[in-house]
Write a structure and sequence with these properties.
The structure is a homodimer. The first copy, chain A, is mainly alpha-helical and about 160 residues long. Helix content of chain A is about 50%, strand content about 5%. Chain A has a domain of about 110 residues: Arc Repressor Mutant, subunit A. The longest helix of chain A has 18 residues. The model of chain A has no long low-confidence stretch (mean pLDDT about 90). The first copy, chain A, binds a DNA duplex (39 and 39 nucleotides) through helix 3. Chains A, B: One of its GO terms (molecular function) is DNA-binding transcription factor activity.
Amino acid sequence: MRMSEGVEWALHCCLNLAFLEQDEAVPAVKLAAFHELPTAYLTKQLQALVRAGIASSVPGPRGGFRLARAPEQISLLDVVVAIEGTEQAFRCEEIRQRGPGGGASGGIQVACTIDVAMRKAELAWRQALAAQTIADIAATVGRRYPSTPVRVRNLLATAPA
Amino acid sequence: MRMSEGVEWALHCCLNLAFLEQDEAVPAVKLAAFHELPTAYLTKQLQALVRAGIASSVPGPRGGFRLARAPEQISLLDVVVAIEGTEQAFRCEEIRQRGPGGGASGGIQVACTIDVAMRKAELAWRQALAAQTIADIAATVGRRYPSTPVRVRNLLATAPA
DNA sequence: GTCGATTTACTCGGATACCACGTGTCCGAGTAGCGGAGG
DNA sequence: CCTCCGCTACTCGGACACGTGGTATCCGAGTAAATCGAC
């Protein structure tokens, strides 16, 4: 079970964008260069954020990406779901219904007990993710490393030509 | 982020084995036929359970697999880790250290805040899995579907020649 | 000097190859049980 | 009748192909800005 690395990229990008003025758009090439990421592939992840309504894109010169809403309104779960999709990691294929061990002789069983247990755990994971927002991360970073926010702003803000 | 379906197979197999006498070995071909699973591939998963110390295998005729310890001592996390491996889904690649946004000008940052947040969520997931055992599942199934345990026993116990 | 059309350059967006891991399969090593021969 | 030996058949175990999804890349569509010319 491996999470796409695009999630890490997306989270860092959201965090960096949170340090800027909210209506300032940053082109993908700058966001990529910031962490030496492949630009074209990062664009793909950013588009996923746009589709999910987390970020918005503005085309043309001086265009780029920006957060679509306040960092306080963006949970880590939102970002993870935007990149990884909505379906859960454990997927019950209902193998218990198949074969001689299936419900043929026992009638229709309502819920797979194993599936319920696995869903329970994954729900705990989702709740833990939903409880933390990009703003929380930004606040923690600003407290632990006060120089980071200004450095990000200086490097990502529209360069002085 | 997709979990291997082998996890589902392994969980169901552990559950079925939990219904039997603990020292009774069931060959892989029977466990596979029980849910119409490909025998050879299921064997691979069972071997993983053996390597993890969850199940034990006995070779030769009348051989097969059995649980290595009591169902109360087997958590869902044990099974998931046995199949999926120990490393977590979100892996921090430390991209924050790379590129102009890295710690070059800010000194060595101790912990990646994003990584900490993601680990926190995954820890909640692991704890939720560790809190549930195969015995719990078996008990729930026995309560909701009383006919299942005896059916499993009849189908998996050493057939009358 | 001001307004407007045109050009230009820059951005996103989706369509297209490549690669690794999970999926599926096979054959060989090892062992317990069974049968037969001998005592 | 009991014991020992050899054989057989059945099981696990690891080594070998295949397919799907993630990874990486490219080129085209669209747009805002800058430029040039006319008024």
